[in-house]
Write a structure and sequence with these properties.
Blueprint (H helix, E strand, L loop, with lengths): L5 E4 L7 E4 L1 H9 L8 E4 L4 E4 L4 H7 L28 H8 L12 H28 L3 H6 L2 H5 L2 H17 L6 H21 L3 H17 L5 H24 L1
Antiparallel strand pairs: 1-2, 1-3, 3-4
Helix pairs in contact: 4-7, 4-9, 4-10, 7-8, 8-9, 9-10
Length: 249
């Protein structure tokens, strides 16, 4: 069979190709040029027959390929189940990620801490400017309601209060992009109100506006939780007591 010379042709062809050895025909079959329907010349019967009609030749041209079987490898683990171990819940995993467990308290994710500090700063700044607006506008509501531009411009604290209302809305919407403007407002408010209180000899309001303005400014700066809490407390406390002072006098 290995030395047999073969002539082949397709059913729609009149000219034969060859002679080929069995190995050559097998190579043509792998290349897709020979199929089971390809005609092979049978010298014994002097006829063209389909390759599939000769079982021995088919087996030689299309030898059965051996299948590779991978033996499963046994993996031994050193981890052994502990029947007394406590089941881990989603809350446990979150607490571990945030460093709120005994095992991970010194490995907390700094990004999570920064996000918390930023949130505290945002809330502190929002409440601070809201209290500042209340202290600046409520004692002079008649000036604002008059609609007289000259009266409004002549009351700088009212103008500052209107600005604080706008900032309260923007910060309440979570717009941290206005932080540079908030810092400018903190400096402006301290300079303007501080000058007025200093000129009038009002020491307590001067101290309150200084603390509140510093807290407002630092609320937009700190990215650590403890400093952010201190800044928020200073801003809210300073502007809150200042608003109380305005409303009670």
């Amino acid at each position: 069979m290995a030395t047999q010379e073969l002539y082949i042709r397709n059913a729609n062809e009149t000219e034969a190709r060859g002679p080929f050895s069995v190995d050559q025909v097998s190579s043509l079959a792998e290349a897709g040029q020979v199929t089971a329907e390809t005609l092979v010349y049978d010298a014994g019967t002097e006829q063209w027959v389909a390759l599939s009609a000769n079982a021995e030749l088919m087996a030689a041209v299309y030898p059965e390929k051996k299948k590779l079987i991978l033996k499963p490898k046994e993996i031994k683990t050193l981890n052994k189940p502990d029947e007394n171990a406590k089941a881990i819940t989603v809350n446990d995993m979150l607490a571990a990620a945030e460093g709120r467990t005994d095992e991970t308290k010194d490995k907390s994710d700094p990004q999570i801490a920064m996000m918390k500090a930023a949130k505290i700063g945002m809330i502190g700044a929002t409440v601070t400017v809201l209290l500042a607006a209340a202290g600046e506008i409520l004692p002079s509501t008649d000036v604002l309601l008059s609609g007289d531009p000259l009266k409004i411009v002549g009351s700088p604290l009212v103008v500052l209060g209107v600005l604080d209302v706008f900032l309260t809305i923007m910060l309440g919407l979570g717009m941290a992009t206005i932080y540079p403007f908030v810092r400018f407002r903190a400096a402006l408010g301290f300079g303007l109100a501080g000058f007025i209180f200093y000129a009038q000899g009002l020491g307590l309001p001067l101290m309150q506006v200084a603390i509140g303005s510093a807290g407002l400014y630092l609320c937009t700066v700190f990215v650590s939780i403890v400093p952010a809490v201190v800044a928020a407390a200073a801003g809210i406390g300073g502007m809150g007591t200042l608003a109380w002072y305005f409303l009670s006098h």
